[in-house]
Each structure stands twice: as C-alpha cells, then as structure tokens.
Specification:
2 strands; 10 helices; two-stranded antiparallel sheet; Hypothetical protein af1432; mainly alpha; disordered C terminus
Length: 195
C-alpha cells in the first residue's frame, strides 16, 4: 500500500510510525483511496493540532501497552473517518472537520499521565477533561460539539453518552481502535501478556 507522503508525512514524525500506520490499514483491509482521503482530511482539518508540540510528543508516550498515544490517536481518527465516509455515502450529513478535531484531541490529556494522575483509574476519569483544556488551548474557537465529544469519549465507562454524531464517531473509533490494539496488533507485535 502506498500513501501520499505529503499528507501522512505531516502527521507522523518518524518513518517507522508511517510503516505502522500502513500495516494498521492493511490489517483492517482498508483500500488506498480511503486511506489517502482520511489522511488528507486529517491534514486539512487537523493541521493546527498535528503541528503542535504536544501532538508530536504523543508519539513518545506508551498507550494500551502496545502503541503510543499518537499512534492510537491516528488509529481512532482513521476508524472514525472510515465510518463517517460510509455514513455520508448513505446520505447522512457529517461534519468531517469536527470528527477530525475530536479524534486528534481526545487523548492529549494523557500526555504526562504519570506526573498528573495517581493511577490508571484516575487517568481514565480525568484525562477527557484535561484533553478538552489542551484542545481549547490549541484551537481557541473549538466548537462546543467537539469539546463535548472529547469530554464524553469514555462512554460507557462514564455514564454520560454522546449527543452528537461527532461524539458517536469518536467513541466508535476509540473503542474499535482499542480492541484492535489489544488483540490483533498485540499479536502482530508479539507483546507478552500482562496476565
């Protein structure tokens, strides 16, 4: 699979991350056209986020024992955008900019987790709030629907569900990415079990 390097290059600080994302898309059997479209949308709508220092640093913090916050974030965005494109083909109106921004910012509050949070449970409950604060610093005019989607992305662990299609797509992408990371990707990268 060959991605248009002009878009993926802006999203990934290192060639190895690009290789990992290509393998991720292959694992999911996603065609090159959809992959290129998604990275183009990530670049167009998420430029202020992906060019930030905190987003770049997200590729150097472990997440889900198998990936990094940055890789996970792009996995989430790819899943959410693939779902959004299918919905748009069926006539639904989806604000792609909102989906991209919500996905790219949803876990930025995890950066520095060991210094900020007492343990993983506290991180689970508080990082959405920290992510909203960081997102607003990066994008002062961030739409309310995006802030709310980020704040509620831990549903159903947190009892307040999303109220928008942006929130739904973020949660779907997040849960599917986590599943793939902890099952299929873990086996591919041969990470030992924690149990």
């Amino acid at each position: 699979m060959e991605l248009r390097s002009d878009f993926i290059g802006y999203c990934c600080p290192e060639p190895k991350i690009k290789e990992n994302l290509l393998a991720w898309q292959d694992l999911k059997n996603v065609n090159i056209e959809t992959t290129n479209r998604a990275f183009k949308d990530i670049y167009i709508y998420g430029k202020r986020v992906i060019q930030s220092d905190i987003f770049r640093s997200s590729f150097y913090q472990q997440h889900h024992y198998i990936t990094t916050v940055g890789e996970h974030t792009l996995h989430v965005a790819l899943f959410a955008l693939e779902s959004a494109y299918r919905m748009m083909e069926r006539g639904y109106h989806i604000n792609i900019s909102n989906v991209v921004l919500a996905c790219l910012c949803h876990d930025l509050g995890i950066i520095g987790r060991h210094e900020k949070f007492k343990n993983d449970i506290v991180c689970c409950y508080l990082h959405p709030i920290h992510s909203v604060v960081i997102a607003q610093q990066l994008i002062p005019d961030l739409p309310v629907v995006v802030r709310t989607a980020i704040a509620r992305h831990m549903f159903p662990s947190m009892p307040i569900p999303p109220f928008s299609m942006t929130g739904y797509l973020l949660i779907k992408g997040d849960k599917l990415s986590t599943y793939y990371e902890l099952t299929l990707l873990k086996r591919l990268r041969k990470v030992p079990s924690l149990t």
